[in-house]
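ingest -> validate -> predict -> emit
validate: passed (alphabet ok, no gaps, 382 aa)
predict: started
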Amino acid sequence: MLHSRAKCLLGVTFSLILLIFSLSSFARQDSDSIIEKKIKILDANEVIFGHISDGHEFHFISFFSGGKEHPISIPLPVILYSPGKGITTFMSSEFHHGERTVKGYALLTDHNIERWGLNSKKFSAGQIVAVNENGQPDTGVKVYDFSITRNVVQMLIALALLVWVMLYIAKKYKKGEGVNTAPKGIQSLLEPVITFIRDDVIKPNLGHKYEKYQPYIQTIFFFILFNALVALIPGTANVVGNIAFTGFLALTAFIVILFSSNSHYWKHILWPPVPLGVKFILIPVEILGIFTKPFALMIRLFANMLAGHIIIICLVSLIFIFGTLNTIAGYSVSPFSVAFVIFIYFIEILVAFLQAYIFAMLTAVFVGQAFEGDHHEEKVHL
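emit:
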């Protein structure tokens, strides 16, 4: 009964929105010229990719005054090197959001790329290129960007927060709080999480060597978790949704797996215990599996953390897209968009814990497989 009423309500709401758009389209016979002259529809692609990509500033909001856009942002240091100019440093605010060139360099924007006729596949918004004396891009000059971008700054902030929290908890234990007495505050919040990762992730997969790998697995889990939670604050960057971030974590896992391997692991890969005819098929698959495991870690974390942020921005963008077409439609869509955004935000908190757990779990599994023979030897001795 309740389900049918909900379906009916959704049908009525959708019908009203369609009716509003129909009346709006009939009332505007010269809508094309009006939109071209007075209405600038929100570029959702620019907003989405501007949020999920890295940048040289923290951009919070923009307001219009005197017919111009005035963004509110925090500039970050720009550190560039090119063979002809050497090292150049300045603040990103000197670019004036791509409107000016600074010391022979220009910050590319979608407008600049289109104005200069640059290849959009080779150049992207946010990239810094060298310019000649006429202010035109000099594609022949190689520019190495070592700037402290917002992803780097936010990752350092999350790291500092993680270190501070863990040192604070460690001091509590050193004083006997949580040992002789019940844990309190943030100590009581994180202790069950640490115990859960140790007892349900590390011990079952790493066996008698769990103490050796526990610092690494625990660090991986909380580093991903803290970065993912900080990224949910409006105005921050989606660090965990950056392929370079997840790629580095996967690379560290790959190195740990290789250094943890033994002869039994490589024998199983290079000469698996299967019939001779199957070996020639299985050996290339096993060798490929050495690289696909960390690659899967990288892509899984990247895709899942990126998808949630894109959904949130799309839902928020719907308000402005509908509002530029029709004011009533914008107000009508707003409650639904806000409600879904709040819902997705709570889901993203759950996803942050879940993805940190999955990455830690799979890393423990892959490392445990690398010294799988040691488990068998332990069982024989027992």
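Residues 1-40, 375-382 have pLDDT under 50 and may be disordered.
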